Amino acid sequence: MAARTTYRRNKNLKTIRPNYPGNKMIGGEFCNGEALYEPKFSNVIRWQLSENPQKAEKKSDTWTPAVVPCAEAFTSNEDMLVWLGHATFLWRVAGVTLLFDPVLYSSLGLRHRHALPCRPEEITGIDYLLLSHGHRDHLDEASIKLVARQNPNMQVLAPLHMTKLLRGMAPNMSVQEAGWWQQYDLGGNSALEITYLPASHWHRRGLLDMNQVLWGSFMLRVADKLLYFCGDSGFGDHFELIEKHFGPLDICIMPIGAYKPSFMMQQSHMDPHEAAKAANILRAGHVVPMHYGTFDLSDEPASEPLRTLQEVAHGQMLRGELHAPAVGEVLRWQDWE
Questions:
Q1: 92 in any annotated domain
Q2: Average pLDDT, 10 consecutive residues per value, the chain (337 residues)
Q3: Which of 3, 40, 50, 256 could form a disulfide with 305 if both were Cys (CB 3.0 to 4.6 A apart)?
Q4: How far apart are the C-alpha atoms of 64 and 66, rounded to whole Å?
């Protein structure tokens, strides 16, 4: 008997795409758009048994991102953007402090290659915690527990079906779930709009939870600015759909690493050329790269993702201006033209 097809969304939230029925599910699994995507274990075995053609280059490439202290960012009232490593960002927009995908500690299989630019205990004053999806390099239990404890009034903006997972980490967290193309309820007086949008990815944390939690990206709108956080995504037609709905974007935070071998990574992550193409489709005025340099997740050498993206930008194949900050560097995004 075929698994039942349903469509899910948060009925209490506004859906901004006309006639969008919600996220498609087949049985208990969210689809990656219209079709199920389940990474094959055979590809993992193939990866482990195959020889990395860049093995020697990767071993000799000891590059890590520069790190500068940023503890004062959490006590400042100024708008700013700060990369804390991998996909973790502090973004202050219109005086509202947002923290994205915090992974503050090393864990099994995820060892930080560089220092954190602040002590975890200094991460306070967070208004909203935005979680793009449930993979451990974006959603770390120890980090969630610490951030929840230090920011008791913080609200979590999450994808569909993530509340149960989060409440197992921090039972008292205030969680709001959204499906793709849904706008979170921030209250009538908020100067900020936040919408959860598509990404090409998948979910799994254990043996029995394949695709049971949704994944996606975030769009922030403040005044006349559109600010986009891509989360994890392979390249796909969702970028065209986002641009068609919103028009040109001001700032895109785009993932550029963990793309080799392509037979295993291409539906989950973008290489630097694909990330540049996606940013161009989105007509981004400014591009900030992420998802590189912090963890060893794949076969490419550590410095290759940023080096390649810089070559793309220098070759005038990137429409927007590239900003590649040090970890902890404060970016005054509001001054960018």
A1: yes
A2: 91 97 97 93 81 93 98 96 98 97 96 98 98 98 98 98 97 97 95 97 94 98 96 98 98 98 91 98 98 97 98 97 98 95
A3: 256
A4: 6
